[in-house]
Predict the structure.
Amino acid sequence: MLTAFFYVLSSCYEEHRQIWFETQFKVLVMTYRIVCGLGPGYLKECLLPYKSKCVDINLSSCNDVSYSKTIYPNLLYQKSREVIEYSSEYILMGVLHNLLQGECNPDLRLLSCSIMAPRCEEGKIVKPCRNVCETLRKNCLPAFDAIDMAWPYFLDCDRFFVDEVEGCFDPLAKLRGETEFADDAVSESPTFIRFTHHSFPQMVRELKKVASRCSHIARMYSIGRSFEGKDLFVIEFSTRPGHHELFKPEFKYIANMHGNEVVGKELLTYLAQYLCSEYILGNVRIQTLINNTRIHLLPSMNPDGYELAAEEGAGYNGWTNGRQTAQNLDLNRNFPDLTSEFYRLTRIRGARMDHLPIPPSYWWGKVAPETKAVMKWIKSIPFVLSASLHGGDLVVSYPFDYSVHPLEEKMFSPTPDEKMFRLLSKTYADAHPSISDKSEMRCGGNFVKRGGIINGAEWYSFTGGMADFNYLHTNCFEITLELGCEKFPLAEELYSLWQENREALLKLMEMVHRGIKGIVSDKFGNPIKNARISVKGIRHGVLTADDGDYWRLLPPGTYIVSAQARGYTKVLKKVTLPSKMSRAGRVDFILRPLIGKPPPIVHEHYDPLEHFDPHAQQEPREDGGQSVQPREKPWWWSYFSSLDQHKPLWLLKHQ
Ligand SMILES: [Zn+2]
């Protein structure tokens, strides 16, 4: 300020005598304070003497702009180079490249320079063009959203930028010339995915970016937290994010349940980016999939374990380090064992074999918060089909995982839906070039004769697995994908792993449309929830969702299907599913009320999931992933912690 002030004095009054200067100095300071203290409107007049002076740009961050002269004060009324260099705006400009992980670089910096070191011609500021600002804002906003940062106020397109008719200049013109070739390259490969390992915060950022870029079809939500408090983030794709839609089946992929098996975690992160980009670009297959399916991706079910494994790093491939959670629990052994109960019921004629309750004794043991969160999630959404992504071998395995004979460690133990599970598993295996490769010397070569698929219990039996739980407690069919012998491969291998799995991942999602679907209602059209859909010869029913809609995965064939609900008569239908059917056949049922008293309601076991501890969990958030809890400052805030005052609070989205 003082430097500037001396400049005013010397330029206006250089002919005056020094003595006058000294006596008048205090008066002038007061006058200046009175006039200039009134606000920006008066500032222009105050600083009139600058107007005719264009000066060299001497800011290190702006030395490569397409012009050489600037003027003080700049468009932010910063009056000297020093003031600019110590401002939070300038500091932000310097670190933005790192914060946004190289995105929008150097465009954002050049745009910021056009405000902080504005172009000067004949003593006047030439303002930058509004359309350049608007385009950049649109392209870069997802990157800001991903780190929870607000768009900087000094890049307000309406406030600091002008239209062409007002004589603006394009601050990025030079850049465009230089990157013409790069732009072309981008348009040829539209889905830009960085095939690297992502730390937990990096993964969250990528997912947030996708949710922001594709907000019309994607949403991020948390199903709860890990033992160490990391959110178990899910990204959802649907034409109505956040809502179950009538007749729209729900699909899920879960990865990184074992923290050291990381391929699935990366694949699901890439898949999210791929689905978003391809949908926007008009890929008909992806649009059809998302328009007709609600897809949920949980890339990391065990983020605490992942962190431990990542410390060891790729390549070292710690076979067990990080497999368990921070509580030392193996999540794929931590689910309730309903399979033993299933085997017991098999011997009882007419016993109900599906939607088995969780035995109360389960809750006496250690239940991981991650397991609890997933159980709650599985119960809250009527999932139809799912896969859990693992590593360590190359094969697709399907339930049951727990042997029909408790002492037999390798024993074929099929579910009543063996045919369908085989079809699902074969679909993935056949679409995967390495799993379908016939060489027995390769990773997973011992499964070649079986076509790359195996019944879980026949491979090795274990209890408390997630797939068995899905099948026996809910409507959902879940298979297990073992994606390769290396649990934590080098980053260089990730691209080919994506190439190998992409088609298979899509094909399996499309399988959710096999079989039949429909609605069960009364004669007035009121939907009946929890009606049981049974197929003759398959001892496993599915229940209708809240809106009365259901999905019954079935391989091609002819079936007798029935629907029944408490207090209503049973209705039977004969259904034929031809072998080439890409969409589920629609089979609706209208049930008539039973004459007389409905049978008494049987009370089921106490289920802690119904009485959930709200502090241990976070409900899926309706507002697109914004926490309702008091917020900590974002991680990047530390960049500005050195500033004593003038901290850029305007960058905080949630103050
Ligand atoms: Zn595993």
About this structure: The chain has a mean pLDDT of 85.
